[in-house]
Amino acid sequence: MLFLKVMIFGALASGKGTQCELIVKKFGLVHISTGDLVRAEVSSGTDIGNKAKEFMNAGKLVPDEIVTAMVTSRLSREDAKENGWILDGYPRSFSQAQSLQSLKIIPDV
């Protein structure tokens, strides 16, 4: 069976989250938001969350490598493999887009 793999992009407050909710409801996809991932890892006190927190506390963006590791980990979970997924706001940089290629995720646009 072929599962959807969707990426949604847009400026802050452009309605990405609202659209994701509608798509998730209609197709049963797993919603993967980088902001939610980072907040969950930080609040759980994981090693990667603590690394992200250091940058956040310094007023810096969380580096691409850390965000990519979080997204890669989330994509490897069974629910995402079984149901398909929607990436909310990822990739945000050229480096993040290249990481998708290394995971063999090539979008049809």
From TrEMBL:
Belongs to the adenylate kinase family. Keywords: Kinase, Nucleotide-binding, Signal, Transferase. SUPFAM superfamilies: P-loop containing nucleoside triphosphate hydrolases (SSF52540). Residues 1-17 form the signal peptide. Coiled coil: none annotated. Its EC number is 2.7.4.3. Transmembrane segments: none annotated. Pfam families: ADK. InterPro entries: Adenylat/UMP-CMP_kin, Adenylat_kinase_CS, P-loop_NTPase. PANTHER family: NUCLEOTIDE KINASE (PTHR23359). This is adenylate kinase. GO terms for molecular function: AMP kinase activity; ATP binding.
